[in-house]
Amino acid sequence: MTARALPLYQEADRQLSICNACRYCEGLCPVFVALERRGSFLQGDVEYLANLCHECRACVPACPYTPPHELAVDISQLLGTVRRTTYSEYAFPRAFGMLFAPGARTAGVVTLVTIVAFVLLTFAIRGDRLFTQFTGPGSFYQVIPWLAMVIPALLANIYAFVVLLISGRRFWRDTAGPLSSRFSVRMLAEATSDVLLLRQMHGGGEGCSYPADKPNHQRVFYHQQVFYGFLLTFASTSVAAFMQEILGQLPPYPIWSLPVVLGTVGGVMQIVGCGGLLWLKTRAIQAGTPSKTRDMDALFLVLLLVANLTGLVLLVLRDTQIMGLLLAIHLGTIAGLFLTLPYGKFVHVIYRYIALVRNRQEDINERRALQGNA
């Protein structure tokens, strides 16, 4: 723990201890169930609870001690601040985490640089083809050679995967202990079910109170669009790779082919989801809802939105003279997205899954203890 972060965790221990004594929010979400299992809150406990929290803010209107009360309890804001701290504390290399920590500017600059780099690389390799019309199978590679397209994308993907793996291992070590002491097939299955169903975003059943105090299910819906849309676009990429490398069929593929259908539906879903979540964040700003993670969260949504928009525009205009430019911009956006993934909102996906696994293990242990005492 850094000296700068020490007051934050001291404040977390204070507020969480008040919650543990009150228990008025018991049952609203798994955070309060996990909280009641603890008598004190070390750094690892606080970071675990922060990433178990989905910031539905159902606890805020329910809590009798929120400001202007002298106890000034706001668990949602507190855990959001801690969650943002974990983005940089567990990043690899840590210096990069600190570079991205102040806000969204660094990630935005990195993405802009990758877009410009792809356009310039395309111009340097085949500048005479950047604004030339190509159609039919293999037309993409007429503008950007296969190796020039694949190698940067592969390196960006490998970099993101390795960094996320190391960061996740660090977070697991500090919040859940050794892997061997926590792992079981049952807890993994239950945690995966929690992820696929977005089970903890319902604020005790009535819905999410973010950004307003009135519960609703809008945020759940938009999250579903982003999550399942992302899975569809991943499936699209996988099918396209199979068709090219195994079946020998070169892109671009027909409109009604499986990779295009999957990618189009997934892209539209992500555009709807990202746009909706950005709209909710705008409403939160107007309502004065505090959030220490808003900049990074919003930037991730914007990058994902732009990546899908450029992909769909490329699909529509792939038989025109600006296909080459659009392809370079799209690939640059994707590369920037993957290079910045490990240092912003996306890393919460990894930490949250680890928190859900730990939570399910605690549930299983508690149920076993009750059965043993019965």
Overview of this protein structure:
The protein has helices spanning 6-22, 30-35, 43-52, 59-62, 75-89, 94-100, 105-126, 139-143, 146-175, 185-197, 218-245, 258-287, 294-316, 323-340, 347-373. The longest helix has 30 residues, at 146-175. With 374 residues, it is mostly helical. The chain has one domain.
What labels describe this entry?
0% strand; mainly alpha; 68% helix; 15 helices; 374 residues
Question: How widely separated are the two ends?
Answer: 41 Å
Annotation, overall tally of beta strands: 0
- Could you give a short account of the major beta sheet? none
Count of runs of 4 or more consecutive helical residues: 15
The arrangement of helices and strands along the chain is HHHHHHHHHHHHHHH
Secondary-structure class: mainly alpha
Low-confidence stretches: none
Helix content: 55-70%
Number of domains: 1
How large, in whole angstroms, is the Cα Rg?
A: 23 Å
* Quaternary structure state of the chains depicted: single chain
Instruction: Give the overall shape.
Output: elongated
Average pLDDT level: 86
Kindly estimate the percentage of residues that lie in beta strands according to DSSP: under 5%
